[in-house]
Automatic annotation (TrEMBL):
GO terms for cellular component: cytosol; phycobilisome. InterPro entries: Cbl-bd_cap, Cobalamin-bd, Cobalamin-bd_sf, Globin-like_sf, Met_Synthase/Corrinoid, Meth_synthase_dom, Phycobilisome_asu/bsu, Phycobilisome_asu/bsu_sf. It comes from the Bacteria. This is B12 binding domain protein. Residues 228-354 form the B12-binding domain. Keywords: Bile pigment, Chromophore, Cobalt, Metal-binding. Belongs to the phycobiliprotein family. GO terms for biological process: homocysteine metabolic process; photosynthesis; tetrahydrofolate metabolic process. One of its GO terms (molecular function) is methionine synthase activity. Signal peptide: none annotated.
């Protein structure tokens, strides 16, 4: 481990150990600098401000450990649009981060983290960019995807299901339904929640419905000839966003792989035991949130140091890896894919016959 990496790791661990103290100091300074916050938000507002400070530190801690400033900057930009859509002005976020910056700068031991906060503040000072929809009629099956999501947002799960089944019966491929309907619809759900245009209940309903509809396609999915290759697909411990990982497993099944799919929040020891039992060619790890990167690194390290699992090829995916395309290398993975379809193509290239 290089001296630079050792320093980042040490500061990251210090942020983790002192998160409560640093968050409380940040909020106290914020309220001291802007006493009007008391009248504006009341007592519940201070509680939420403290929660936000904890989130800032969690993302900062992991971005620092991963040597990825873009992860913290993109988190702050996401927080800006999310908070603004809920009536919290960007000035409040800006001041909170400036207070955090001042707290971190007071001690030599945490100054290394201050540079990332400074970068994020610089990005925050720019204009707010639009968050474009991925549901476009010009895209393959674009109108179908738009109608599918409309039905789900109207709580019409049966109608959405029949729409997909009818499309497949008429000749649309299952791969196209995954890549051009389910995937953009899920992205749009995230965008709508971020902009406060739908509730978390709607997002959960639509995601659960998508999983049910995908399962109705399984008879065709598992009917494809087998290739003799096995893979394990899972989210790391703590990660609850599992639909992307499930799409990866399903498209590998469609391509003839035998998949062992574990879903959300799977502990590293259980995954390691499964690797030793099934001896897969590929382990696919999913992590959407930056705050779970430490567990990705721990899992990869555990696989690499286990005599019976060290040979396993590791592929990672999820939003944080898409934001930093070289991140997977720094965590010790062999490959990264931006989506399920690309994951299949990369894997087949890695394991193609000589």
């Amino acid at each position: 481990m290089t001296t630079e990496r050792q320093q980042r790791t040490r500061v990251s661990r210090e942020l983790h150990a002192r998160a409560a103290e640093l968050a409380s100091a940040t909020v106290a300074l914020h309220y001291e600098r802007v006493p009007q916050l008391v009248a504006r938000y009341g007592a519940p507002g201070r509680v939420r401000c403290l929660e936000d400070a904890h989130y800032h530190l969690s993302y900062l801690e992991q971005a620092l450990a991963a040597d990825s400033p873009v992860l913290f900057t993109s988190y702050v930009q996401w927080a800006r649009s999310m908070l603004e859509s809920r009536g919290v002005p960007v000035a409040d976020l800006d001041m909170n981060l400036r207070c955090l910056l001042e707290i971190l700068g007071r001690e030599t031991s945490t100054q290394a983290a201050a540079a990332m906060v400074d970068d994020a503040l610089l990005a925050l000072s720019g204009p707010t960019g639009d968050i474009p929809t991925l549901l476009r009629d010009s895209e393959p099956h674009g109108q179908l995807a738009r109608e599918y999501l409309r039905l789900l947002l109207d709580w019409e799960r049966r109608g959405a299901s029949q729409l997909i089944l009818d499309a497949v019966a008429a000749g649309a491929s299952i791969r196209d339904m995954y890549m051009h309907v389910f995937q953009p619809a899920q992205h749009e759900l995230g965008r709508l929640w971020q902009l406060n245009e739908i509730s978390i209940a709607q997002e959960h309903y639509c995601t659960a419905a998508a999983q049910l509809i995908m399962s109705q396609l399984y008879p065709q999915l598992f009917a494809e000839p087998r290739s003799g290759r096995t893979m394990i697909v899972s989210c790391v411990s703590g990660e609850l966003h599992e639909l992307g990982a499930r799409m990866v497993a399903d498209l590998f099944e469609l391509d003839g792989w035998d998949t062992v799919y574990f879903g959300a929040n799977t502990p590293a020891p259980a995954l390691l035991a499964a690797i030793n039992e099934h001896q897969p060619k590929l382990l696919a790890i999913s992590a959407t949130l930056t705050v779970h990167l430490g567990r990705v690194r721990e899992l990869i390290d555990a696989v690499r140091t286990d005599a019976d699992a060290a040979h396993t090829t590791i592929m990672v995916g999820g939003y944080c890896f898409n934001r930093d395309p070289e991140l997977h290398r720094r965590l010790g993975a062999d490959a990264h894919s931006v989506d399920a379809n690309t994951a299949v193509a990369i894997a087949n290239t890695l394991f193609e016959a000589p």
